[in-house]
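[Automated response] Your request has been received and processed.

Submitted sequence:
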Amino acid sequence: MTSDTDQQRRGTRPETDAAPLPPRPGLDASDGVRPRGGDAAGRGEGSGGAPRPARHGKGLRGLRRPLGIGIVTLWLSVIVLLPLAALTVAAFDEGLAGFWEAVTAPAALASLWVTVLASAVVALVNAVLGTLVAWVLVRDEFRGKRFVNAVIDLPFALPTIVASIVLLSLYGPNSPIGVELNATRWGLVVALLFVTLPFVVRSVQPVLIEADREVEEAAASLGATTGTTFRRIVLPTLAPAILSGTGLAFARAIGEYGSVVLIGGNIPRETQVTSQYIQQQIEIDRPLNAAAVSVALLAIAFVTLLLLRVVSSRSQRREERDA
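Generated structure:
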């Protein structure tokens, strides 16, 4: 009785002979130190100490990388770099003086001017109307939307000479709508608009789909007008895509041939674009002039694409910094 009473006063004591806690896997129960066997297992050694065979995955990955780079380099060299190098060598066959004389010929400068001017107009029109078309396709619902969305890509699949025939039948001398644009610069613009339509639309459309509309709704709830919301919120988001599509449309337009070959009229110093001038020089057996003007046209396209790349990279870095 006395021992029971003393034990109740002191409280319940933990059993000294209770089972100890099980040790954690991989650790020694006495001092908590990982045994050496665990290290051996981690290094791929079995229980008997014999090393496991090394895997060759890392070696294969190391071989795949230079192999892939080599294939890409070879393909680009055969398809792009070697033809461009051959064209450049042909353009400078008579030295820098011969190249400069061919490029600065009055007919060559006139064709370059007509091409750049028409392409610039087409790019600006596409920047506005292409953005509007993308906006309607994304934000509005109407009957026949899928059909319109499919028609946007038609210039990519349709041969450009077919587009020239269609435009000539519509805007030629016997125009059914009474609008004659044959052998005019406006005819060039219409033809180039046809072939460059998808660039801005397809560049802006994904950005509009991914845009956060809650920000626009919040601006509207704070009293911002539709124009202010578009100018302050939507346009900065779409600006890189619009610029990219506009630049691609410009680069595509300066090298166009098929869609303008019939409706343009090929009038020297009036409606003759650079691609038609190059063909003319080849037909009259002046390959040096054709190659020189081709290099000049190539330089304009390359500078345009390079500027687009620089602007796109800066915009991406700015977005990452703001985020």
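Summary generated for your ticket: The chain is about 70% helix and 0% strand. The mean pLDDT is 81.
If you did not submit this request, please reply to this message.
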